[in-house]
Structure prediction request, 399 residues.
Amino acid sequence: MGSDRAIRAGIALALAVASGAAALLIGGDVSATLVAIVGAIAAVLVALGTESDERPVAAPTPAPAPDALVSDVIEAVVEPVLVVADRRVVRANAAARALLGQHILGEDVRLAIRHPAAAERLIAPLPEDDAPIDLVGVGTREQRWEMHVRAAGPSLRVVHLIDRTGSYAADKIRIDFVANASHELRTPLASILGFIETLREGAGDDPDTRDRFLKIMFGEATRMRRLVDDLMSLSRIEAEKYREPDQIVRLGELVEEVRAEVTSIADARGADLVTAVHDAPPVKGDRAQLSQVLHNLVGNAMKYGRPGTPVTVELRHDGGAMLQLAVRDEGDGIAAEHLPRLTERFYRVDSGRSRQAGGTGLGLSIVKHIVERHRGRLDIASVPGTGTTVTILLPVVAG
Prediction:
């Protein structure tokens, strides 16, 4: 009877959902569990659809159709999901239609997902290991997808696409970082080894040549040490990025300490440093890291500002929730197209000039990570031929 079929459908659907919940508790894989539930429901519907009922239904009772329930379930999945019967797409959630097009319903699945690596998996017998297929070029060129295909009956399959674009981008950043760090370390190391070899071959017999070579070697070794220090510092900052600092820091005092340290160094530019510290409330922060921010910004301003022009450090509070710290130089400035990338690791506007000035390419990246850890904001503005201003906003201590 129709009521019996509805009862059986309800029981089967409940068992499917219960089985998926049990699988989630045991395995913890949310995506696989959702796909399993969808497949089980779809299989129940196919089975019910092939049964014949010899007795006519006198008065059908109003109830949610199982077919509608499948659509509701797959629509609840935020990632693209397709149900395929006899190689044709019979169901597709909104995410799948947005990615592959509204026309895919009723279409051959190989035309819906146009990718050579996907075609064979979509129609061939499924392997036991259910290894995912990586898809590149589905959607936009930058997107990376992981395709899972599960059997839900003799001719029924559930296709689940998982967006791995973020993971791929993170892997690429890590690979590029390792490659850049290796290159930056190899360059001074190769120079040191070359000079050592030259000295061993007899050039060290001449005192002037030996002193010149040793001076270059010392400079390259210092550059390597500075790079290693910055790499270790960046690693520590990233490890602490989710732990909010809890020290009370008075930035006015810290600015004056940094000014005293910089001007005490026997450097012609020390006299160019000017501070303008106005009354400012304390901030909650890490004193050592905020000192590092000041040293990095002042150091950059002195390296790239024109000699004899002021480097100004200004601390201001306008009564709001944020304290403003600005470091300005009067240098050559930076073209607008470079500004969004200045905080990338090892990004340099002028590589030769940066290395000659002793830069590691990590200073502004370190500043950005410290500011983010302090729940602040970083802004870089520059006018070519006029100079650059780096502004940091930090939350003041409430009350």
Summary: The first helix runs from residue 2 to 27. Confidence is low (pLDDT under 50) at residues 50-58, 61-65. The chain has twelve helices and twelve strands.
